[in-house]
Write a structure and sequence with these properties.
With 273 residues, the chain is mainly beta. It has three helices and 15 strands. Strands 2, 3, 4, 5, 6, 7, 10, 11, 12, 13, 14 and 15 form a twelve-stranded mixed β-sheet that branches. A three-stranded mixed β-sheet has the order 1-8-9, with no helix packed on it. It is globular. InterPro entries: CA_dom, CA_dom_sf, Carbonic_anhydrase_a-class, Carbonic_anhydrase_a-class_CS.
Length: 273
């Protein structure tokens, strides 16, 4: 049965008890509350190598998603580094959005809710897929990108533009469209600074809310045009209604949120500037 955001997401726990856990996502992230860390940067393996076949976009009735195929080198893209323990192989990507009257990002950044959030979901290479990996500690890693509506029309991100232009074809529940061009996974990241991100331990933001996810949330916000975001707002669910698919913010409790990126290192005790 499809996930429902209709009433609110607080009643998920009646069927999925983990949704009431202490390491739930999404959360509100603040720069001043995050802890700067010096760890290896994230290595985006094969992210910029073209995929071997086009992506197939699907309207599941609660999101727009697509599996990530292998690259032309016959392996899937992967990530490692940061606070990740191990290597994480990409599986799929999907989106969360709002409406003309409601912001659409799941995570909140520095007091702002943004207009769209994209998740790129990876499983620990020890496991076959996300569904298996989510049962184990350090099983899953999700990269999140936040988007903000801007007035420009053609922003020119090849991978993202390919998705936007195919959304009309999957407006209705359970429809599928094969994109006609080949892209790389990295092209979905636009021109984002890959070395500036927040990271914390949390959960899937949809049932069963498994608490085995390392989140990587880019600090930079990507622009999206109003005409493109409207295509998400027009997507229909199983009952042919437009839908909003954002989970309510969860309490961060005592969790630490780490920040990786441009540290202003003090090189000596004296400051001459």
């Amino acid at each position: 049965e499809p996930i429902s955001y209709r009433n609110n997401t607080d009643d998920w726990y009646s069927r999925y008890p983990q949704c009431l856990g202490h390491k739930q996502s999404p959360i509100a992230i603040f720069r001043h509350k995050s802890i700067d860390i010096i760890v290896p940067p994230i290595f985006f393996g094969l992210y910029d190598i073209p995929m071997a076949e086009p992506i197939i976009l699907h309207n599941s009735g609660h999101t727009v998603q697509f599996q990530i195929p292998k690259t032309v080198l016959d392996e899937k893209p992967f990530i490692t580094g940061g606070i990740l323990e191990g290597t994480f192989i990409v599986e799929q990507a999907h989106f969360h959005w709002g409406s003309a009257t409601r912001k659409g990002s799941e995570h909140m950044l520095n007091g702002h809710r943004y207009d769209l959030e994209m998740h790129i979901v990876h499983h620990n290479s020890k496991f076959a897929d996300v569904n298996t990996a989510r049962h184990f500690e350090n099983g899953v890693a999700v990269i999140a990108l936040l988007f903000k509506i801007v007035k420009i029309n053609d922003i020119g991100y090849t991978g993202l533009d390919l998705i936007y232009k195919n959304l009309k074809s999957i407006q209705f529940h359970n429809t599928t469209i094969k994109a006609e061009e080949i892209i790389s996974l990295g092209s979905l990241l636009g021109n984002i600074d890959r070395n500036d991100f927040y990271t914390y331990h949390g959960s899937l933001t949809t049932p069963p809310c498994s608490e085995t996810v390392t989140w990587i949330i880019f600090a930079n916000i990507l622009p999206i045009s109003y005409s493109d975001i409207k295509k998400f707002w027009n997507i229909r669910d199983t009952t042919d209604n437009q839908y909003v698919n954002i989970r309510d913010l969860q309490s961060s409790l005592f969790r630490k949120v780490y920040h990786f990126g441009h540290l202003k290192l003090q090189t000596s005790g004296w400051n001459f500037d």
